[in-house]
Design brief:
The chain has about 200 residues and is mostly helical. Helix content is about 70%, strand content about 5%. The chain has 7 helices and 2 strands; from the N terminus they run ααββααααα. Strand 1 and strand 2 form a beta hairpin.
């Protein structure tokens, strides 16, 4: 998007206030047993799962950062015949081939760099497993898949009440704080909420 057409930055404070107000209302209804609408139960699941996903993400990032500070990310420096750029970092074997080409004259260098990169990757993998980074990333991925499942269910499940619509939009709003550019956001939820309100209004007339 060009600077002339870029949307102005929005003040998110009112959004956060709306999310907090919706959470208080839905929590109160749940505590009073007024959670017959399936979307309120989905919102309860969302609250726990989303919070868990964020905690696991932060934990994995912390472990990765500490490991990188200690041993560095797995990579090698590829020397180039360019006085302005004598070397460049490669993190994958295909990058080495792309930088050096596949001519026989560079074969020995390419092999050595690939061996060094493989050794660095093996050390990283072993250290990541030892400090718990590998398992943290696996737990994060599992939580993220559950987050995706709830998002899909929330956008597709019809609300049976106004609080159900609030629960649907609360999920969408909280997710949008983290991933404003996610595929389908927020239109899947807006279309769903519109359909829900239309159906409820039609039943009352």
């Amino acid at each position: 998007m060009s600077p002339r057409t870029r949307a102005p930055k929005m003040n998110r404070a009112p959004w956060k206030g709306s999310i907090a107000a919706a959470a208080r209302l839905l929590t109160s209804m749940s505590q009073e047993g007024q959670d017959a609408d399936p979307l309120i139960r989905l919102w309860q699941d969302w609250q726990e799962t989303f919070a868990s996903s964020q905690r696991l993400c932060q934990e994995a990032q912390r472990l990765e950062r500490e490991l990188a500070e200690r041993i560095g990310f797995p990579r090698v420096e590829v020397p180039l015949e360019d006085p302005e750029r004598p070397s460049v970092v490669a993190t994958a074997a295909r990058q080495i081939d792309r930088l050096l080409g596949t001519a026989p004259t560079s074969r020995s260098l390419r092999r050595r760099l690939k061996r060094d990169l493989a050794a660095a990757q093996a050390r990283w993998d072993a250290e990541a497993a030892a400090v718990g980074l590998t398992s943290a990333m696996e737990r994060e991925a599992t939580a993220d898949r559950r987050v995706d499942e709830i998002l899909k269910s929330a956008s597709r499940t019809p609300a049976r009440s106004i609080p159900g619509v609030i629960a649907k939009l609360a999920i969408a709003a909280e997710w949008g704080e983290l991933e404003p550019g996610a595929d389908g956001y927020p239109w899947d939820f807006i279309r769903g909420a519109l359909a829900d309100l239309t159906a409820m209004t039609a039943r009352e007339t």
